[in-house]
Amino acid sequence: MEADGAGERVDVAVIGSGFGGIGAAIRLKAAGMHDFVVLERADDVGGTWRDNTYPGCACDVQSHLYSFSFAPNPAWTRSFSPQPEIQAYLRRCAADHGVTPHVRPGHDVRGAAWDEDARRWTVDTSRGRFTARVLVMAAGALSDPMIPAIPGMERFRGAAFHTSRWDHACDLAGRRVAVIGTGASAIQVVPQIQPLVARLHVFQRTAPWIMPRDDRPIEARRQALYRRFPLAQKAARAGIYLARELYVPGFRHPRAMRLGQRKALRHLRDSVPDAALRARLTPDFTMGCKRVLLSSDYLPALTRPNVELVTDAIAEVREHSIVTADGVERPVDAIVLGTGFRPTDPPLAPRVHGRGGRTLADAWAGSPQAHAGTTVVGFPNLFIVLGPNTGLGHTSVVYMIEAQLDHVLGAMRHMASAGVDAIEPRADAQAAFVAALDRRMRGTVWTSGGCASWYLDATGRNSTLWPDFTWRFRRRVARFRPAEYEVSPRSNGKA
Hints:
CATH architecture of the largest domain: 3-Layer(bba) Sandwich
Low-confidence stretches: none
Number of strands: 21
């Protein structure tokens, strides 16, 4: 690394220190590339697993699969890891692989621009400027909360916060609390706070499909087995992977979801004896159209005497209450927003300027698209980890991240061996990749399941999920294909 008048000069700048950023840093280091920084806006690594500290926060993919294949953790304590363990795992991975010194905490990226003459990226942060030959965006899709525009919210005098920005100074014991939303975070929060609060109002817009969560402790003897025989843990990981891939036909062929729906309805019937309440908790769309949720304690929590499920729309928020469309006013002391994130509207997109000053937001025009989910026409030397159509509805995104990192490293090796300064996908290659993906999306539960979900962008296109088996994504993406890319030969012998 070196500093000049234009700022600190590095070979690679990575934005974000969650699984994508830490994974990229580890792979760079393993490949013998040490001239890089990881720009992190917070004061610690972990990404969404650092930010989400709400009660009950845990992963909905089993621990052995929701981890790097090259860094198994035999010490997971539960089938589904709680948030503190996942953040600790990422910290440990960064330290064990020697990438912690490369992390720059407190460096909030304000913008990035491609310099065509220098063939480098200029990255402006809250603590100074960097220039980099390669820019890796690994900020993640679940990094910035979505705050709905609820009339009167600014007038509310009690505590109000999003689940991803949990206010631990706010004691909810004995208070009247509203939880707005019934997504993945809300169904984890509700069972945790229900025994503490005086009254809990759960505001549901759409009833989600909920499957039981088979979470159990991992005994010390099994942890010892995995430490002594790493192949045993690899076998457990492979078994989980294969079992989760069996969900794919249901997503691709909605009629195949009937078996899953029957299991979910049986779980609902066993958890909620009251028929009227059960009717309001019964989804009216095909399972998988929205995210399928896992919980064994959320539905029972809704049956407790201090809990009310509210299905009428919110009309307004007042200083100390919430009023619904039917005119009912409910006094509340605190509001918890379980309203999700903005995966189809990445906050960095308007601030990343490619060739000719065009932003990612301009290029995408409301519908994010990328070649191999990783690179974008007009944005040389830019790689997006967990970019468009790399999200999943059934298994671990860490698997997708590793495939993308193989692609990134392949591109960088090609640049070095071919004497190339800049590389970007060919327009026809990107268009062909996106067209094939969209064809595969047709007829799936996400496009014909009868719901409106956060998977869909402003144009109605599903630009969030990969619509197939994940091994097919790895087979298509992991190997870098030079013929699909435009290159700029090295100028004046300089890298």
